[in-house]
Structure of 6-phospho-beta-glucosidase:
Amino acid sequence: MKLTMIGGGGFRTPLVFAALLRDTQPGRIDHVALVDTDESRLRTMSRILADQAAGVPDAPRVTVHTDTREGLTGADFVFSAIRVGGMDGRAADERIGQSHGVIGQETVGYGGISYALRTLPVVMRLAELVRDVAPDAWVINFTNPAGIVTEAMSRVLGDRVIGICDSPIGLARRALGALGIRSMETTEIEYAGLNHLGWVTALRVDGVDRLPDLLAAPDRLGSFEEGKLFGPEWIQTIGALPNEYLHYYAFQRDVLQADQYAPQTRGRYLLVQQDRFWSRAADAEHPYAVWQDFRHERETTYMATNRDSAGMGDRDEDDLVSGGYEDVALALMRGIAYDQRARLILNVRSGGALEGVDADAVVEVPCIVDASGAHPVPGARVPAHGRGLVTAVKYVETQTIEAAISGSRSAALRALALHPLVDSVRVAGALLDDARSTFPDLSYLR
């Protein structure tokens, strides 16, 4: 099978390749096509993957392409992992947000909307190209904001586009670890919400929900990342485990203050780190080792200002383990290609599975995967306290998509002004004006 990775020169590509190298089952991916606009990064990434595959028999063949149509030809699966505007764009969004006293993080609030507005026109063209060049391919979307991007692409590709995020499975793994449970083979996770806005509502192990045991033990709740971030008392108060990105909503003022005191924004830090990485990896004898070092550095500093606002200090080594989105992607591909039934938390069209959300709206819920795709498990429930937030943010997402498709400045303004993390229509207008003057890509908004 052939896997085409759009944005294959991106930093996280070796994570996906590692999962492919671990896969020894018949019918595995044997050709990976990396597609990117940056030819020098493609060359370096090709060297990293070759170094990573050293000593692995029958490793997938890797080809590199700057022509998207060429890279897509013959693809069975397509990964979309692009960053329109690059890390410079992320840093600019954070700066604009801070200048108006709002959070500029790349997937929530102003930052997420701005990022989506410049990304959606690009991914819509990509969806049309996939439809024309590789109509039988399945698209697995990693591009952020994952829920909005997946929903927009579904207007072209229908259910053949599925979004993935590692936050839910990472949260569940850490929570189970706090209970002393290391294997997830007999675990069934109940999760409901939108991308970067959801809750674990049950952790069934061998049919028994262990979440009440965790909620009854403040010491265990406070032993892992999300428990430290939100505090055991608040998690006990809401009766569910919140996705880490809900910290921006629950502790908005605290995060804003921490952002103001931080020596630099996350985007600016990654911009500097990224330049150092590509420079070192380009000439290194063992570039994969360089990538591993820089990845550990990234994970160590992840959500640093949020942790500072909660007084958490450094991350524990157990918390540095990724949620495993690459393994979820592999299970998803195998489930579809070989009808290997699996239960996974994915971003898909609701189809009525999540109460109060339109059937065509993309939500993040448990799904059953088989040869015909990913099917939401009926009955997913958002905790009562979060239903209004989900409704509000979903409206913002639909208006963001409307703005990108129609070029409507009014829709973009509605999205910004009505987002729960933007508290003023005047500020929303100023944010939009600053974004349009900063990013030429947004000139289509009129």
Summary: The longest strand covers residues 197-205. The CA atoms of residues 300 and 315 lie 6 Å apart. The mean pLDDT is 94.
